[in-house]
């Protein structure tokens, strides 16, 4: 049997197992409208996706994942609650790592459940954990919602908080913004000169590019507003750093985050959700006392997740990407739901990696 045939056979077994757990099988198109993905992720998505053009349908992308089209399908036609499974190829450019596959299979399990989100988190995670148990993988968990709560609670302008929320998934940019907003990083001389000018547009010459004069002036006004705002306090920066440094077993992480919540009450709802999730996991027979939790986990490759996140890794094969990943993406349903929303969580397994590690049978 060829590798491709073995991978497809493993994908079929995984999908059948997910169907046995109550998931409805669904299909999505390999070509997806680029406009939707660009609206969600901005132009950054072009560096990771294959883009083509169609005279009738406009700009299209080869499917970079299944979650976005499945959410669109559910928000347009799905009943509540709902559970779906799917399998097929996804396509991602790997220019920074040519040894990584740019086309590979995914098999997914997605749950849309309004009444008990923590129980749904536990359901998805336990299914992935138990399915992959024969491979002896390391499970990593985190919660983007804790950091989001911390940002929302900062004593600073809404514009600054919006910028930080937008770059939570870009750790270097997030840190640069924190340094700038807290006064740790000096304002560039060119920006200081611009803001000191009575008329920054004077002598600017003809407009070049897509931005109008009004848009440029609005940006200058925003920069002036930011320059006049008080810096984020050192105490708040220290609390953010303390959150990002949490990397322990789940019970210890929970206690640490509870301590931080005393001084940063904005994270308390997310910490309480974490506690309920761990209880739900225990109810499914999982040993949370040995389960790892990293507050920063998921910030470099899970852009639409806004709560619980997880991944499974082959520690003996550090050269491999995660065998499975997943998490909660409530905000995505709001963005794609045109006024509607529903809590949602899911995960995907890469059957090609399962085969490479020896398979599940």
UniProtKB/TrEMBL annotation:
UniProt keywords, alphabetically: Glycosyltransferase, Transferase
Residues engaged in binding L-histidine: 65-67, 92, 106, 110, 299, 304-305
Domain Class II Histidinyl-tRNA synthetase (HisRS)-like catalytic core intervals: 8-170, 220-347
Source domain of life: Bacteria
SUPFAM superfamilies noted in UniProt: Class II aaRS and biotin synthetases
Entry-linked InterPro entries: aa-tRNA-synth_II/BPL/LPL (IPR045864), HisRS-like_core (IPR041715), HisRS/HisZ (IPR004516)
GO terms under biological process: histidyl-tRNA aminoacylation
Gene Ontology MF annotations: glycosyltransferase activity; histidine-tRNA ligase activity
Cellular component GO terms, alphabetical: cytoplasm
Full protein name: ATP phosphoribosyltransferase regulatory subunit
